[in-house]
Amino acid sequence: MPSLEQWDKQLRPLLSEVILIGEVELSKEDVDDLSSAFRVFFGHYKFSQAISHATNYFPAAFAAWLVALAGDVYEGNNLWEHVCRTLKVEYNANQTSRLGQTFEECADRFGLNYEFPGNRYVSHILAHGGIPRHLLPEFFAKLLHPTLRESKIGLTANEQIKHWLAGAASNLVPRAIVRFLDYGGHVAERFVDRSLQMARTYARSRELPQAGELGLAAGVVDAYREWLRQSGETVKSVQHGRRSHAPFLTLDPYIMQAVLLQLPGQPLGAKEGRVHFFW
Hints:
Blueprint: H1 4-15, H2 28-44, H3 47-57, H4 59-73, H5 79-87, H6 93-109, H7 120-128, H8 136-149, H9 157-166, H10 169-172, H11 175-183, H12 185-205, H13 211-214, H14 218-231, E1 248-251, E2 259-262
Antiparallel strand pairs: 1-2
Helix pairs in contact: 1-4, 2-4, 3-6, 4-6, 6-7, 7-11, 9-12
């Protein structure tokens, strides 16, 4: 079994290339090995010393392990209880708070300490789990592509996520996907926005841009390409990115009891620039 030093050496360059820690996927065997290694490590030191050493010497290993462990076990509010049981340390508020702070410090080492909504530490860890690569096909099939066929257009990424979560998303897809959308904040919004851009680009041109052009991890684009190949999915999208703005009434601030009809400008596609429209 690799030592914590070996694990950290292996994981550091990987964390330097990702947006979410969960993009560095660990197998169940990897998580079990890291759990054993950290359990032995915490058994050799006082808790405060072990936490300090983990931050200073094994930040990549600690952060990646905690995210992977949370993805496997989190139910309700039992994350810290499971972490403490795994490490064989006392489960109390002071120690769980220190574990959360340590995670933030480790994530910060790699520029990955974002702000997420919800519980400060738990939300942070869960959001960093992202959507595991093996679940991306379900995200594509059950959320992303059905959205392309819907009549709801012009939704922002935040609105789209709320639409999914308010609907059947929690029943259609695995918990890890719902959890990321729910806790992921601006990182989840960015992921959804870029994923929709990727799907719409493919729908128009049958070509996929490079990951760097989209602002997505290469693994996401590769997974989408493979999913398209295996599923034989044909994309038919509605006209996205354009939503007509309705006229509205306002009161004239200068003329008593006068009502103004406001006719807002309307977005036009590139091919419609010379077409005349009338209200």
